[in-house]
């Protein structure tokens, strides 16, 4: 083979070609680092833009919130006052809290009140119209559909006496409701009228309300009756001018029955006419940035700033390349050492120095472990070939000798001659069968046909099969089978496993000794034990008991020592069932082989 390779390569040993640059680890690392750097720069720019956008959005949201606060405060002032003469302190407080410049003018833009110096020019468009009788729902979410600020109560504002009387009644009703186990609270409106707030089912509220008389709180007071009479008169006049039937408006400022849109417009018009003398006149609201406040910095991408960004990005790329080349070189050097070592597998005891403690160092250590295991496996292979040759030579030599003797007329071909040759052939077949089992297990082709079986029945069968041999050897064979659950296993393979252990125990137990076959349940495992009172195994030999072709006494012959493969087969079959096999021994006293098999079936054993 070496000569053929030299012939194909012009007389020189074949050497692998240079690695293409696009497959080099260093080039890949460079490409990955450059990509990461570019992505980092792009992500940083994107993050800066997003941050700026978020800041602007937050600032805009704060501005809108401040505008809404200014509008709500001024609407509340207008609803409770008849003019704007005392609004200056309120404007000053709002300007201080919001940092805005606030100006109020009449609808023809004559100044009414200013939060600060009046030197600023007014914007072309007003921020809002402050009119409690025509509120903007976008700036005042709590306003009703009629557009009238609920804080504009006018003639419906209760005097102190009526307010005290209604408050006392509300507290009395609340006590009654709580006495019935109903949750209720008292709130007070802008006019000073208290109201009960109840939670729960509406039907139950109505029944409990009737018991406690809560509807008495809905009756208008003397002040409210006068105001309602005036309102109904205004509504009636409007409806009469339009040729519509009169309606009655109560404290809810809505007709008692469903009405048409013209009727509703009459009610809204009448309410505004009634409340107009009690609220401040409409004014225009102008809100602007305070004088002298700096403008928010923008995101300037001028030529100079663009050059700075490009310079920083180039610097990041250069640093990335330098670091990547340095790190990549340090990574590639031990990999090249590993590659050179892997190209010379025939050199014995080849090791790669482990100079780092990172992934490359771990790889070098793993390579050294692999080389050591390879050497160990090679030694085992050589020893196994030698053992196989030795084990096969003995029966083959015997068969050849007898056949040559028969051919030369030195041995008669009688029944004893044939029986002797058959015995040697059976021994040879036994070795070959054991080797085949181990080869199948090593290649992963060992097939198990598992089924539920009784450990007691299986062990009784194995004991019965070996009882005659034990009696011939003068060994007492006993069984001790406790309550063991059903086992899921291949019956033929398990009988072979236990049989090998039992045969080995009888072989190494002198006459008068005892071999005990036991079985018991241990949690989620089934334990099978084969104990003998034979010669025992030295502590130094215990780790090698399950090695192939190993015998404790190398001087034993085949007729007394076995093939040396039985215990190796035991380990392979036990592990194929998902179990373990161990051995303990006290030389001259007792040796115990223990099989531990899972009580629940292994998924690999289930039929598919």
Q: What this model shows, in words?
A:
By secondary structure, the chain is α+β, with helices and mostly antiparallel strands. Among the domains are: 359-441, Helix Hairpins (Orthogonal Bundle), CATH 1.10.287; 448-605, Heat Shock Protein 90 (2-Layer Sandwich), CATH 3.30.565. It is built from 14 helices and 13 strands. It has helices at residues 2-8, 25-80, 88-98, 160-179, 202-212, 222-241, 261-275, 303-342, 359-407, 415-443, 455-472, 491-507, 558-561, 566-576, and strands at residues 100-105, 111-114, 128-130, 184-188, 194-198, 283-289, 451-453, 476-481, 487-489, 514-522, 525-532, 580-586, 590-598. The strands form four sheets. It has a five-stranded mixed β-sheet. Helix 2 (25-80) packs antiparallel against helix 3, helix 8 (303-342) packs parallel to helix 9 (359-407) and helix 11 packs parallel to helix 12 (491-507). It holds the Pfam family HATPase_c. It is found in: Cell membrane.
- The string of secondary-structure elements, in order, is HHHEEEHEEHHHEHHHEHEEHEEHHEE
Distance between the termini: 46 Å
Helix count, per DSSP? 14
Helix content: 40-55%
Fraction of residues in β-strands: 5-15%
Q: Nearest-angstrom radius of gyration?
A: 52 Å
Walk me through the topology.
Layout: H1 2-8, H2 25-80, H3 88-98, E1 100-105, E2 111-114, E3 128-130, H4 160-179, E4 184-188, E5 194-198, H5 202-212, H6 222-241, H7 261-275, E6 283-289, H8 303-342, H9 359-407, H10 415-443, E7 451-453, H11 455-472, E8 476-481, E9 487-489, H12 491-507, E10 514-522, E11 525-532, H13 558-561, H14 566-576, E12 580-586, E13 590-598
Parallel strand pairs: 8-10
Antiparallel strand pairs: 1-2, 1-6, 3-6, 4-5, 7-9, 10-11, 11-13, 12-13
């Amino acid at each position: 083979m070496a000569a053929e390779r030299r012939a194909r390569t012009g007389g020189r040993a074949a050497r692998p070609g240079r690695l293409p640059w696009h497959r080099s680890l260093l080039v890949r690392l460079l490409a990955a680092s450059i990509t990461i750097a570019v992505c980092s720069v792009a992500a940083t720019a994107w993050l800066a833009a997003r941050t700026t956008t978020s800041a602007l959005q937050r600032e805009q949201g704060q501005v809108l919130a401040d505008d809404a606060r200014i509008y709500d405060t001024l609407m509340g002032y207008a609803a409770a006052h008849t003019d704007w003469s005392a609004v200056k302190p309120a404007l000053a407080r709002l300007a201080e809290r919001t940092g805005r410049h606030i100006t109020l003018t009449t609808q023809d833009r004559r100044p009414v009140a200013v939060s600060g110096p009046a030197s600023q020019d007014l914007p072309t468009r007003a921020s809002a119209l402050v009119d409690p009788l025509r509120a903007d729902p976008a700036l005042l979410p709590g306003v009703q559909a009629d557009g009238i600020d609920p804080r504009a109560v006018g003639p419906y504002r209760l005097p102190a006496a009526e307010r005290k009387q209604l408050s006392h009644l509300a507290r009395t009703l609340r006590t009654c409701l709580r006495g019935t186990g109903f949750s209720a609270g008292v709130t007070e409106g802008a006019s000073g009228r208290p109201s009960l707030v109840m939670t729960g089912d509406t039907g139950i509220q109505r029944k409990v309300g009737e018991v406690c008389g809560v509807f008495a709180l809905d009756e208008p007071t003397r002040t409210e009756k006068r105001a309602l009479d005036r309102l109904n008169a205004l509504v009636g006049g409007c409806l009469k001018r339009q040729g519509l039937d009169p309606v009655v408006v109560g404290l809810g400022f809505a007709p008692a029955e469903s009405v048409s849109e013209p009727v509703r417009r009459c009610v809204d018009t009448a309410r505004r006419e009634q409340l107009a003398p009690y609220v401040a006149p409409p004014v225009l609201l102008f809100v602007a940035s305070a004088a002298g406040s700096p403008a928010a910095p923008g995101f300037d991408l001028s030529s100079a700033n663009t050059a700075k960004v490009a310079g920083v990005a180039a610097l990041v790329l250069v640093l990335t390349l330098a670091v990547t080349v340095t790190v990549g070189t340090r990574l590639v050097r031990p990999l090249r050492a590993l590659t050179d070592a892997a190209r010379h597998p025939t050199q014995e005891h080849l090791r790669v120095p482990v100079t780092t403690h990172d992934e490359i160092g771990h790889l070098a250590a793993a390579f050294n472990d692999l080389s050591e295991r390879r050497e160990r496996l090679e030694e085992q292979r050589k020893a196994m070939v030698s053992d196989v040759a030795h084990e096969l030579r003995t029966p083959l030599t015997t068969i050849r000798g007898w056949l040559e003797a028969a051919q030369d007329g030195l041995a008669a071909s009688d029944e004893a001659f044939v029986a002797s040759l058959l015995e040697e052939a059976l021994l040879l077949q036994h070795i070959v069968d054991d080797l085949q089992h181990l080869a199948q297990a090593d290649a992963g082709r060992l097939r198990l046909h598992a089924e539920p079986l009784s450990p007691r029945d299986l062990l009784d069968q194995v004991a019965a099969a070996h009882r005659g041999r034990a009696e011939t050897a003068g060994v007492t064979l006993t069984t001790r089978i406790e309550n063991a659950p059903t086992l899921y296993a291949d019956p033929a393979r398990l009988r072979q496993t236990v049989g090998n252990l039992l045969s080995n125990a009888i072989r190494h137990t002198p006459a008068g000794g005892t071999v005990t076959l036991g079985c018991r349940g241990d949690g989620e495992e089934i334990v099978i034990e084969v104990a003998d009172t034979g010669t025992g195994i030295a502590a130094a030999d215990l780790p090698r008991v399950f090695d192939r072709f190993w015998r404790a006494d190398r001087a034993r012959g085949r007729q007394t020592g076995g093939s040396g493969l039985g215990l190796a087969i035991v380990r392979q079959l036990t592990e194929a069932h998902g179990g373990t096999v161990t051995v303990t021994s006290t030389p001259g006293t007792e040796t115990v082989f223990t099989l531990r098999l899972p009580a629940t079936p292994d998924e690999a054993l289930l039929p598919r």
